[in-house]
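Q: Could you write out the predicted structure for this multi-component system? I'm mainly interested in how the pieces pack against one another.
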Amino acid sequence: MENNTIQTLINEKKYFEIRKYLNDLNTIEVSELLNQFESSELIMIFRLLSKNRAADVFSYLDTEHQEMIINTMTDVETKNIFDELYFDDIVDIIEEMPSNVVKKILKNTDAKDRHTINQLLKYPDNSAGSIMTTEYMDLKKDMTVSQAISKIRSTVENMENVYTCYVIDEVRKLEGVISLKELITSENDTPIQNLMNKNIINVHANDDQENVAEIIKKYNLIVLPVTDDENRLLGIITVDDIMDVVEQEATEDFHKMAGISPVEESYLKTSAFTMARQRISWLIVLMISATFTGRIIKSYEDVLQSVVILSSFIPMLMDTGGNAGAQSSTIVVRALALGEVNPKDAFKILKKEFSISLIVAVVLAAINYLRLIILTKTPLNVALTVSVTLIFVVMISKIIGAFLPVVAKTFKMDPAIMAGPLITTILDALTLTIYFRFATMFLSNMIK
Amino acid sequence: MENNTIQTLINEKKYFEIRKYLNDLNTIEVSELLNQFESSELIMIFRLLSKNRAADVFSYLDTEHQEMIINTMTDVETKNIFDELYFDDIVDIIEEMPSNVVKKILKNTDAKDRHTINQLLKYPDNSAGSIMTTEYMDLKKDMTVSQAISKIRSTVENMENVYTCYVIDEVRKLEGVISLKELITSENDTPIQNLMNKNIINVHANDDQENVAEIIKKYNLIVLPVTDDENRLLGIITVDDIMDVVEQEATEDFHKMAGISPVEESYLKTSAFTMARQRISWLIVLMISATFTGRIIKSYEDVLQSVVILSSFIPMLMDTGGNAGAQSSTIVVRALALGEVNPKDAFKILKKEFSISLIVAVVLAAINYLRLIILTKTPLNVALTVSVTLIFVVMISKIIGAFLPVVAKTFKMDPAIMAGPLITTILDALTLTIYFRFATMFLSNMIK
């Protein structure tokens, strides 16, 4: 719709109208619109944006569209845009660009900014340092409220967040926090050291972003300061960046639990080949380990040939065991990720899963037994074998399913890889072993 | 640690020291500490908190601890606490409490507040109205900047967020938004209608919270206004509440994908019986549908008895098909949840999954074929049957796995229930059918 309107305007070369049309949209809407255009039209529309709007819109464009724009812009235009951007956005852009584009960007930034950018690029992936921005509002403790407010007024333009101000000493050590809300409601000549909160919650630049997300959630923060080993203020992380982290971490867990290596790009942008590679390694591992299950069946060939009906229950037992285990492992993986439980609770978890699995197992086995003897002509002793197997399979599956993620966490491994396909494969082998053991025990008279 | 310190102080009745100790902790830390105490000690420590701190701490306590406190408090004390709380927190508390406690709370609130609370309680679960708060900063458009700032100064105490102010007309219709940042950097006598942004992003009180989360993420907002059918301002939703929504929605998807009905409480707090109930319904459905798979095996009994080795490949084929399908369904469910794809992209998704599955299937089948003829003494034609089956199984699993969630979304159903156990059960039946069809085709000379 929007696309059509503007396409018509472009065809009719009504630049003034286009500009007017763009003015009525907000930044995000303009960038979504631009993302639908290619090369020459993209550049044409982009050039119609006002100078300080251009930078804002630019930061929300797709990587490929950003690259097209930088490639066709003059040095002066490039500088104009990058001067307006926040450092965390510049770093995000640089990390995605090919080296010739990175060179062009760095060539058109001041020496001081280039230094900051290089510093930020050095922080490890997914660390607090890598997602922080350096545009924060800093004050000195001997300032009065009115001095503080006038400093805020004069520098507000370049700041990502001015509502939380940080009080630092001469060597930039963090001494306190004060909100703009407190400043505007206090007397003009009060020194801010009397007002500031010294009980500061902060993170270290090398802390993992998952950690940062936990703290922001726990304390309901909008912004969190990042410091170095000497408690010097390096930057701030705002809650909107953490929102992305929370979703990213959840996505990673979803993918790991389905046996997929982490995918950075979005679905439609990742090539089929890359996606195939991300999925195939686990499938190969699991395919090969599933052959052990096959070996178990093979080693009970004589039992199966004597009581052929036994093989028809294999899928039901394997599926039910797998599903029961997947339920427990999913619940525990998620509870661990949300911090609802931790490895110290191992015993409580086992006790709880034992009770749950007992209830579930007995109900399932009873339903199964009744169904087999009422609805099908399954011999009584076979129905009994299958149902008793079901009890053990469900209980063991649930307990192992809940336990493995806790073990993983204890050894600082990712609990998520202990769920899903891996657990199903382990449980398949266990299920069959239990099944055939009971079969040889209970049905010895039927086995030749 | 903290627990011990304070326990010693309690035992020694050093109330002054306890109070000093509590003063050094922040609100969240105090509530975490209190959550570890029971009844009488809990009340004793709670009473040592200053009046306005008590309310803050109270809002972060566990439901059971909140209940204990309300039950022992006098009416005046109850009123003191609930006067200080934000409406969204009061509503959350009321929703969790038994009716006698709710009565006590409502008895001790002003008629006007009680009206607001009752209004908020009426919004459907998970709607924007149910998570919004009514403490926002509203201004009139004919105010000047200095009038606006002095209104903010005088009412700041009761507001959840003063950094975004809403401009409303006489009948409370939303006319514009202005940030405190803009106010403090503008001239004192400018009318705010010249400064306010009229391009407002808002949600309706009946909108789903998932929708709210999407808008907040898309536009990087800290706070979002909620309006009614006539565009009258009803409340605001702040980003920290949305963070919980995002996690809650992800947890729901995790659980649904593992065949678990939604769990409201955290893992350790839910009883084993409730948890068993949440897990058993899907297990019963899946157990019964898995017997269809058993029927398929049974109907090919003659094939299996002629070529017994065929049964040993069943687990591998079923697992690989299930895993391949789970990968695709997980990827697509998550991409749908994040808004990376939508049902309109169905054709693109199918095309992509076709390419991915072709690569994956051929590689897996080749590895499997080589492994069978080199490492085991599997007859060539059996190895071929298994490997060709594998190609078809992996391709069909991936395509169905990706397609079902998209179909669900098209029909406004939840894509997440189309992943996990359900898809595995469907694919099991398909896998076996394909397998036995190929077996009868390729191995006709071996079948008696």
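A: Regarding packing and overall arrangement: Chain B touches chain A through 110 residues (CB under 8 Å).
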